[in-house]
Amino acid sequence: MKILGIESSCDETAASVVEDGRTVLSNIVASQIEEQKLYGGVVPEIASRRHAESICGVVSEALSEAGCKMEDIDAVAVTYAPGLIGALLVGVSYAKGLSYASGKPLVPVHHIAGHIAANYISHPELEPPYLCLVISGGHTHLVAVNTHTEFRILGRTRDDAAGECFDKVARTLGFPYPGGKHIDESARQGNRFAYRFTHPKMDGSEYDFSFSGLKTAVINLVHNASQKGEELNKFDVAASFQQTVCDMLSEKLMLAAENYGYDKIAVAGGVSANTGVRSRIKRECDKRGYTLYLPEFRYCGDNAAMIAAQGYYDFMAGKRADGSLNAVATLSLENI
Question: Which residues participate in the annotated binding site?
């Protein structure tokens, strides 16, 4: 069964054809990074305009690379939530038109579920149930994956997402957007014990995260040094910051795995490409004998292969949408 996936939740216009939820036949991504870099982050209006300009060509290229025509496609899957509302609307509108014109079923896909499904592409042997840490620019979730289409959120960030924290700290240190990769590269050259940042404790949930205090602590450190005319070692700051994030993520993940009895652990989302995060979680899993699943780097960030993969399982579960489907900027994974 071939699913055409469409993704436009932020600043990547993407389309992909995936067979049976695991085999990628094509995966096309039109990135806006170079343009958005001029503004130090994603400008929603510009992102929406670029999606509108790119989506026809991206979908055509995905079909061509897969050696398919629309008559070979069994269903059209599209990200409808969550994300930038204008960006989402471009993908949803295009998918609805394509579905109507081709007579193919339309499958709405939740973006976070798509990130989780990226692991099915990289690890065909992976099957639920398992515990997944989703870490991206907009989300930080601890998710119990009960089935391919049923999820329970055990913990989430109370404020900033981990990826957003990486980008804001990187900007403060003078690195260009997107900052996460620059923090990762700089951290390898720095002393991760040079600065000590505190770990917040969350009232009411031992599995929730908070990154706003850490972000503020780093910003204050840099600004105070600047006001005093002191020069900080950016590599040391980056290394200490990344070490703290790794501590926070791994501690909550291992605590949830132990308390809920999971020995299969997955990580997903853009921040799962961070080498420090990957190595730290792998080390903690190895200590405990847990099996760890990490997506290939090309499936960590936003892409349509993960949407098509999840779309396959949603389609098999009977999930469909009609012409009334709308984009939703904020929607819990448990409410799909």
Answer: 111, 115, 134-138, 167, 180, 184, 274, 302
The pLDDT assigned to 336 comes to 85
Tens digits of residue pLDDT in 205-260: 899 999 999 999 999 999 999 999 998 999 999 999 999 999 999 999 999 999 99
E-state strands within 169-282: 264-268
pTM of the entire structure? 0.95
pLDDT in tens, 17-58: 999 999 999 999 999 988 998 888 899 999 999 999 999 999
Query: Residues forming the annotated binding site for Fe cation?
Result: 111, 115, 302
Q: Is residue 202's pLDDT more than 90?
A: no
Tokens of 28: 């096309």
Query: 107 and 76 in contact (C-beta within 8 Å)?
Result: yes
Q: How far apart are CA 104 and CA 297, in angstroms?
A: 31
Rounded Cα distance, 189 and 95, in Å: 45
Which amino acid would we find at residue 187? A
Whether 176 shows a pLDDT value over 80: the answer reads: yes
Q: How far is CA 316 from CA 2, 66, 308, in A?
A: 12, 21, 12
Structure tokens, 143: 């998710």
**β 75-81/23-31 pair status:** unpaired
145, 219, 220, 255 from 154: Cα distances, Å: 10, 30, 31, 11
- Residues forming the annotated binding site for substrate? 134-138, 167, 180, 184, 274
- The CA distance from 163 to 247, in Å, is 15
Per-residue pLDDT at 281: 98
